Amino acid sequence: MSRSPSLQSLAPSVAELIARRGLSAVFQPIVDFDGGTIVGYEGLIRGPAGTSLEAPGPLFDQAIREGLSVELEHAAARTCVAQFAKLGCEGKLFLNFSAAALAALVHTREETVAWLRRIGMPIARIVLELTEQCPIDDVPGFESVIAALRDTGAQFALDDYGTANASMNLWVRLQPDVVKIDRFFIDDIANDPLKFEAVRAMQHFAGASGARLVAEGIENEADLIVVRDMGIAFGQGYFFGRPDANAQRSVADAAREALSAGHIAVFPGATRSQTPGSPMGGVAAAKMLVNAPALPKIASNNDVLELFNRLPTLHALAVVEHDQPIALINRRSFMDRYALPYHRELFGKRPCLLFANASPVVIEKSMTVEQMAKLLASDDQRYLADGFVITDQGKYLGLGTGESLVRAVTEVRIEAARYANPLTFLPGNIPISSHIARLVERQAAFYACYVDLNHFKPFNDRYGYWQGDEVLKFGAAVLAKACDPTRDFLGHVGGDDFLILFQSDNWRERARSAMAAFNEGALRFYADEDVAAGGIHGEDRRGNPTFFGFVTMAIGCVCVKPASTPGGRYGSEEIASVAALAKHRAKQEASGFFLIDIDEGAAQLHLHEGAAMTSRGASLLA
């Protein structure tokens, strides 16, 4: 019984494919986000259909085994160019080359340019992509290779930037016309704050170097809209179109709709890195650092006295050994001892460690703010009198006082809360204001929904702040579940106040579902007897005994029109103020929900707004 031949046995050698021109090309579009036009294509090679060498991976692996890698790259490029010219496509043609293939191309550049003219393909339409396949041993020497190829009129691109051998070094040295961001950084960028920040860094450098960026690997609407709203101009990926032998002439419908979508992206925020438990301790350490000299442990008490007399504002003095702090001498305690009769004569020449605290409080510069805060709450309160030592990787850096520790931790926590709420980790007032400004600038229509919890203060008074925090975290989780993270921005203003900037079409259903889920779920935070009674007894703000119902959610919403339409002329502060007004009205409604148009709300503010309401709305932007 005869066996059918395997795919491997059907596959010719790479040498045969090159000789008989057995390669074919496919083209993937590169799209300009402004209008969704195709500005060029990347040419990709394929081996004979139905064989093991059809895919480019096995094809180039076989070329390596045959020692024909450069020859295959050149043949692939000629195949792509010839087919591209035959199709009559417009725009640029991007061709992949290794460093070795580009170096070899220099020697045939004149005949290559002549061939391009004969087939009607201007060299100015060619973009040479340096792939990441192998490292470049002589980067300075390779600069002359790129310069020689550019002299022909071709452009140069750095491919797969951010991985393997596509490095900042090459970007700086070779100064590419185009940099293609590797798909690793683009895939799921809508949900990955670190990828977002990495691409933003590339964007800043591209602006400085004059390179244009192409985002590779775009495969869904969410990633496309984030990249679009970042300001990157060009993209490539399956969402626009797959590689096609006929080179598709228009962008896929889904991608075209996404590019023209009226909503703006909600950028992924790395809020956790800005909370008090994060490495912002370096900021706190800088705020409280006192640059002060230290003495070696062999110094005498007379040396300590001389230094304190020379520096009258110095509260303490560190004793070090091999740059590491081993003791701390408090100024007041030391000077009080020396004021006693005969102490200077008796102890002046004795070692300074005699009156030193041999176990001082030490704060490492990299200590987190949360760790510093725990120190404030600990039983060890020596830092209040003696101060403490600040170190950098164990080595003496300077001193700090108890007062400066309290002030620095407080200031950093307040500043961090402006960016991210320390309880819920949701964006704080600065990111909220920034997103409102982006919505207004992009002339997007949206609903600003101010969320507040009814009867939260009486609950806090009855059950304590710890249980109150649990209710706030529950509320944040409910609101987050109600939002589409790619369209709707959720922020925590402070206390029991939240703000949602809705762009989802079904925003009303999302808001009402959040209210229902919270109102039902909040009952679990009450004692059984309070649930049976329908609420709790407490005091109102004037101290009068009052019965309060359960904690419930109220949402006041403002319909904000695009700036291009009548009434769409409001700024962030006015939108925030009207949202606060809508929240106030929502708390008076039995349903807990209230919707107002921005024009109507602004008119009411101008007519009836008091100072208290003005400051309440403005606090969103503080």
From TrEMBL:
Gene3D superfamilies: 3.30.70.270, EAL domain. Residues 7-257 form the EAL domain. GO terms for molecular function: cyclic-guanylate-specific phosphodiesterase activity. SMART domains: EAL (SM00052), GGDEF (SM00267). Pfam families: EAL (PF00563), GGDEF (PF00990). Residues 444-601 form the GGDEF domain. NCBIfam families: GGDEF. This is Phosphodiesterase. It comes from Trinickia fusca. The lineage of its organism: Bacteria, Pseudomonadati, Pseudomonadota, Betaproteobacteria, Burkholderiales.
